[in-house]
Amino acid sequence: MEEELIQIKNTAVSLILEVSDKKTLEEIKLQFLGRSGKLTLVIKDIAKLPIENRPEVGRLANEVKKAIENTIATQELRIRQLTDRESGLKQKIDVTAPGIKPNIGHLHPMTQVLMDVIDVFKTLGFQVADGPEIETDYYNFEALNIPKYHPARDAQQTLYLDTRKSKVTPGKIILRTQTSSMQGRIMEKTKPPVRVIVPGKNFRYEQVDASHGFEFWQVEGFMVDTNVRLTDLFGTIDYVLRQLMGQGIKLKFAATNFPFVEPGVDTYIECTVCKGQGCSFCKQSGWSEIMPAGMIHPNVLKAVGYDSQKVSGFAFAIGLSRLVTLRYQMDDLRLLTNPDLRILEQF
Ligand SMILES: [Zn+2]
Predict the structure, then answer these.
(1) Against a cut of 0.85, is the pTM above it?
(2) How many angstroms does the Cα of residue 323 sit away from the middle of ligand 1?
(3) Distance of CA 286 from the midpoint of ligand 1 (Å)
(4) 290, 288, 292, 237: which is closest to 260 by C-alpha?
(5) Residue list, CB under 5 A from ion ligand 1
(6) Distances in whole angstroms, Cα of residue 92 to Cα of each of 40, 87, 88, 95, 97
(7) How far is Cα 204 from Cα 4, in angstroms, rounded to an integer?
(8) What is the three-class DSSP state of 79?
(9) pLDDT (tens digit, 9 = 90+) per residue, 63-120?
């Protein structure tokens, strides 16, 4: 019976593939799958087989049925396309009718702003580096002067990778919480002077709201050379943000504390959503934190083998997602990851 089934399949398939009209195709369908079709009759006979053979033959019969049905469906489609094309050719074509404009994709606002950021930094002599999103605890924290149990870790709710099935000590591999993790990696391999920016995605276990996401884009950057001073950092931030956001923006600096810089600087830009009046995006303050920075801590320089007596440097991180929302006066960061074309087509 197995042989018979396979033969039925082969005959049916070759017959179907030769057909070029719908009517004949229907006839062949009946001939094999109809109530008294060849395959239907064989399937009925399965009941007469010894009980132990039935499952095997049943399975084969099912496969044969499916193969025939699929071939019919494909052939049906092919015939339909052929007739459509023929009837299309018979219709008169109006060559003066306006064409249908094809939909052309464009760059996501995030990519557009990122390219602008890279352009500005390139004019200042910065190179662009890329780094892994899966990072070690060492480069993400320890090399940046944030040892285990340091309170600064609390501010960066970390997502740890499950390494139980590998040889890695639990807690050693994480999703990077900041692109600053590339500082150590680059400085270890490069002698000063060095100027680099690292754009990339970061991940934190955060409550998502209008101005925070669990994944967000940052552009980390740093510069190390002889005689790099705090005023160089202020000058760089001021120049870069005015190039990106317009000369008329208002900026303010505040002293802050990050373990990998000393002193630490926080840069605020007047909220573009409410023009400083206070809104939910800026938490009613009229200002939005945009570019935390500072002079690189001597411990960080020492950890990568630099002589902190001879060289100094600054580091900063631009919240790219926030920069995009502020540039386009979007009041919610979550719009950036919304796939709704009505939003994306505005950029
Ligand atoms: Zn605001």
Answers:
(1) no
(2) 13
(3) 5
(4) 292
(5) 271, 273-274, 279, 281-282
(6) 47, 10, 8, 9, 12
(7) 63
(8) helix
(9) 999 999 999 998 898 888 888 877 777 777 778 888 888 888 889 999 999 999 999 9
